[in-house]
Amino acid sequence: xxxxxxxxxxxxxxxxxxxxxxxxxxxxxxxxxxxxxxxxxxxxxxxxxxxxxxxxxxxxxxxxxxxxxxxxxxxxxxxxxxxxxxxxxxxxxxxxxxxxxxxxxxxxxxxxxxxxxxxxxxxxxxxxxxxxxxxxxxxxxxxxxxxxxxxxxxxxxxxxxxxxxxxxxxxxxxxxxxxxxxxxxxxxxxxxxxxxxxxxxxxxxxxxxxxxxxxxxxxxxxxxxxxxxxxxxxxxxxxxxxxxxxxxxxxxxx
Length: 254
Known about the structure:
This protein has helices at residues 14-28, 48-55, 65-80, 115-129, 144-156, 170-173, 197-208, 211-218, 221-231; strands at 4-9, 32-37, 86-87, 133-137, 161-165, 190-194, 234-240, 252-253. By secondary structure, it is α/β, with parallel strands linked by helices. An 8-stranded mixed β-sheet has the order 3-2-1-4-5-7-6-8, sandwiched between helices. Helix 5 (144-156) links the parallel strand 4 and strand 5 (161-165). The chain is globular, with a radius of gyration of 17 Å. The two termini are 26 Å apart.
């Protein structure tokens, strides 16, 4: 029986942007791969900053923004050659009281206790899927949703090893991006996974599937392609725990 991997993505694009090449590589080697996105719930009649987050993508106020994004996520998973993605019913930070873009990166609100609900959901997910390997964010960049996902995964105490990815594109937006959880991962050895041109192409196609995000995140499709080429078909992680299964040969370099 082949091993299984679970990628826990804060938003509908994070796992693909940060670890899509690795996910494609594992799937191509016969692993069962599931991508689960945490903050994917639709919210009716968004207002204020939450509404602005879809209007600035060129979408009308009455569009179901998250439904569009969930469809993009399914297309991205198909490009990677992985299973139908899982979409958990939690609301993004703009629907939890964060009222501006700067607030998303200014630390957790004291009344944002969603990590308790997330930890319960993750315990159920880990129990049902029984992954041999978990992939998840380090919260590089400091986005509050990413921070909450890290906190909740650690609270859920997974038995599988975790490859904590460096959150792209926050890693390239600033020479020294925020790393609010740097000390959390200081004991974890660095890990690099390199992948071939086929997986590189699969990742590029999967990233491009998030059409509502490409202009906002990268400035357009051409800029996305250029940024991905600059990454050189390598993704970087911190490894926590003991790997009880082998990653595909020639894919890793501790």
